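User: structure tokens for this one?
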Amino acid sequence: MGAQNPGRILFIDDDPAFRKIMKHRLEAEGYETLMAEDGLTGLNLAREHAPDLIIIDLLLPKMSGHQISRMLRFDDRFKHIPIIMLTSRDLEEDADKAKECGADAFIVKTTKSKIVMDVVARLLERSRIPKE
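Assistant:
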């Protein structure tokens, strides 16, 4: 029996260099990736492809990470998808607002990529456990 597909991840960030780094890192772990450079494109990709997990920057053109998270959480079709807010802003108020908007994790971009990958794997595993 073949290995299970680890999942499809949507990564939304307006920094092209960071998108390239994360695409490489995620694909090296076996994840299928979708990339978006702004919030509106990211929301549309989320709705079209229903990824297994979404990683969102907070500060994006056209729609913020908070807005995307909130819109997905209020839609029954997508509210189960784990969301990670990955941002350069290291403020407690940002972490609190991310949680209020439905994010499952808040990670500062300066964090080592292994930590980000560990959070991705943990949230995907948790989302696959059947709900009673």
